[in-house]
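Board notes, transcribed. Complex of a protein with zinc ion.
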Amino acid sequence: MPPADCLFCKIIAGEIPNYTVYEDTQVLAFLDINPCAKGHTVIVPKKHLATLIEMTETQWRATLEGVRQALRRVEAALQPDGFNIGINDRPAGGQVVPHVHWHIIPRWQGDGGGSIHSIIKGKDAGDVKETAKLFK
Ligand code: 5GP
Ligand code: ZN
């Protein structure tokens, strides 16, 4: 059972209105209420899952197809110069609403924003050679 107070579950259920960008049986994409850029869109799986690690392969595939479809809708409506697509996962990653979701942020030349590399310049990024040993 999803938590009764989940904001995105309420949007999916139609209890809170939204401006829909794309919808199918598995996902809902809607305009962010507090956009970082014109056309900022949030894509959510309709089944409540709090974080990425909980998602099955099937849910990943369905949600990413929803992201792809939403991207096409935003492209058609706004013709931005580029996009950032990202996920804030868990509080350490900046997640505020605990129902997993993707952000599509349209970008324009000279809009003053940065790249995904501007999220963090970690002082604890470590030595790549040492990190690679963890993947052996
Ligand atoms: P997070 O910070 O969890 O990755 O992103 C949550 C996003 O949901 C934020 O960008 C926020 O502006 C958006 N948001 C929060 N409440 C609402 C709402 O009631 N309606 C819509 N459309 N977006 C919301
Ligand atoms: Zn939810």
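The helical segments are 7-12, 57-78, 128-133. The first helix runs from residue 7 to 12.
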